Amino acid sequence: MTSSFFPPHRTLMGPGPSDVSARVLGALSRPTIGHLDPLFVQLMDEIKGLLQYAFQTENALTLPVSAPGSAGMEACFVNLVSPGDKVIVCQNGVFGGRMQENVERCGATAIMVQDEWGHPVSLDKVAQAFADHPDASLLAFVHAETSTGVRSDAEALCALAREHNALSIVDAVTSLGGIELKVDEWGADAVYSGTQKCLSCVPGISPVTFSPAAVERIQGREHKVQSWFLDMKLVMGYWGGSSKRAYHHTAPVNDLYALHESLVMLQEEGLEAAFARHLHNHRALVAGLEAMGLSMAVAEAYRLPQLNAVNIPEGVDDAGVRTTLLNDFNLEIGAGLGALAGKTWRIGLMGFASNERNVLACLTALEAVLAAQGVDLNRGAALAAAGEVFSGR
């Protein structure tokens, strides 16, 4: 007979999911009510307001899609891209490639702007793409590229889109709650994220927000949205804000309790304080890694504080290190993806997992595992260097 599943307590310092706080896990266990219950409708309104705070927007069409970040991505593309459109897609990692796939599945043409993995999106290349394709109606890019640990200049990219009368689609899966993201001020038109990264909620929900210009395009579509479930015209009837909600789907009630709690925690801390915490812990981690003798894969100016790409030393057994960390230390870090597979580790400091204890535990465990593999390290230097950052010296 199959027995109940009881997972071990892991420290999640990979590319996601991140550690979930006891408060959020406790919210999951609250009594389930109906998804059209007046009290749940009230909760929906609160979630919408909290998401508007997190996104820094007043967009009326701001909601959590009842599926993970990949569905949020698809929701943005299928609602804004029509057959025959031209979409400029920026790729400097794995997730730009997924954007291209979405564009092509919508029957549109993807104009690819390629940049080396580990580098930000080139503004000059995007400007040239618009010059070469003045009929492009959308610009799509990743703000925080999870596969490489790189931040691109979302504000400048959105400005380029507006300058060329195009809408922007922004992947903020890893940026929301971890670094500055100002949807209204930057003029972003469609932004999607995920709950399992810097919001430190359980996986399975994708916050999205659409500008008035994006809503206007959705309302004026000549072709049906190819996805019934993700058609915002239909979803608006459920998340539209009126007291009477039209049934669309059964919302994941308890997961939304958890999202509400994680957003309340973000509001309590304050966005600026959350950004500062991520940056402070990032600086301590980097100081420790470099003192140990390791190097970072991304130039300092473009690094994500919440997702740290570290070069794997020559001759080190990548999978062996990660397996030992998991089995012996209950610590998860991420492997490199795509072109960076086997070349980098991705160490997450996202949301609830971004704290001093995790930084010091990670440095201690990584040093022990690498030393066991015979790597020449500056033993003991990592904790001292991180400690200096934490003490403010």
TrEMBL record:
Pfam families: Aminotran_5. The lineage of its organism: Bacteria, Pseudomonadati, Pseudomonadota, Gammaproteobacteria, Cellvibrionales. Its cofactor is pyridoxal 5'-phosphate. GO terms for molecular function: alanine-glyoxylate transaminase activity; L-serine-pyruvate transaminase activity. InterPro entries: Aminotrans_V_dom (IPR000192), PyrdxlP-dep_Trfase (IPR015424), PyrdxlP-dep_Trfase_major (IPR015421), PyrdxlP-dep_Trfase_small (IPR015422), SP_NH2Trfase/AEP_transaminase (IPR024169). Belongs to the class-V pyridoxal-phosphate-dependent aminotransferase family. The keyword Kinase does not apply. The modification N6-(pyridoxal phosphate)lysine is found at residue 197. Keywords: Aminotransferase, Pyridoxal phosphate, Transferase. Residues 33-337 form the Aminotransferase class V domain. The keyword Transferase applies. Substrate binds at residue 346. This is Alanine--glyoxylate aminotransferase family protein. SUPFAM superfamilies: PLP-dependent transferases.
